[in-house]
């Protein structure tokens, strides 16, 4: 369960950042967008993409850092 704990820890951290006092609610920073990438795949996907099965969510910044490319089907943000 160590992995789950670290996921929960990052959710707690993200939640702390997700409670702005004055920022507009529908404009997350680009690096904070969640995309989905299969561990051994090469592309990252949007939440509703049919090709993302077996993928895990991560921030767009993290996906790019790992070398994932935007999916050609769902066209996630770059
Ligand atoms: Zn896709």
Which spans of ≥5 residues are poorly predicted at pLDDT below 50? none
Q: How many E strands?
A: 4
Question: How far from one another are the termini?
Answer: 33 Å
* Percentage beta strand: 15-25%
Count of DSSP-assigned helices: 2
Helix/sheet category: alpha+beta
Would you give an account of this structure?
The protein is of the alpha+beta class and 78 residues long. It is built from 2 helices and 4 strands; from the N terminus they run H-E-E-E-H-E. The protein has helices spanning 2-17, 60-65; strands at 34-37, 43-45, 56-59, 69-70. Strand 1 (34-37) and strand 2 form a beta hairpin. The longest helix is centred in the first third of the chain and has 16 residues, at 2-17. The chain is globular. The N and C termini lie far apart (33 Å). The mean pLDDT is 83. Bound molecules: zinc ion. The site of zinc ion has 7 residues, from loops.
Concise structural overview:
The chain has helices at 2-17, 60-65, and strands spanning 34-37, 43-45, 56-59, 69-70. The chain has 78 residues and is an alpha+beta fold.
Summary keywords:
single chain, binds zinc ion, 78 residues, alpha+beta, 4-stranded mixed β-sheet
Q: What's the layout of helices and strands?
A:
Layout: H1 2-17, E1 34-37, E2 43-45, E3 56-59, H2 60-65, E4 69-70
Parallel strand pairs: 2-4
Antiparallel strand pairs: 1-2, 1-3
Zinc ion binds next to loops.
């Amino acid at each position: 369960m160590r992995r789950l704990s670290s996921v929960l820890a990052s959710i707690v951290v993200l939640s702390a950042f997700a409670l702005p006092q004055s920022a507009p609610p529908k404009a997350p920073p680009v690096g904070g967008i969640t995309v989905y990438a299969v561990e051994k795949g090469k592309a990252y996907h949007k939440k509703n993409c049919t090709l993302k099965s077996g993928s895990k969510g991560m921030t767009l910044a993290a996906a790019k850092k790992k070398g994932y490319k935007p999916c050609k089907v769902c066209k996630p943000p770059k």
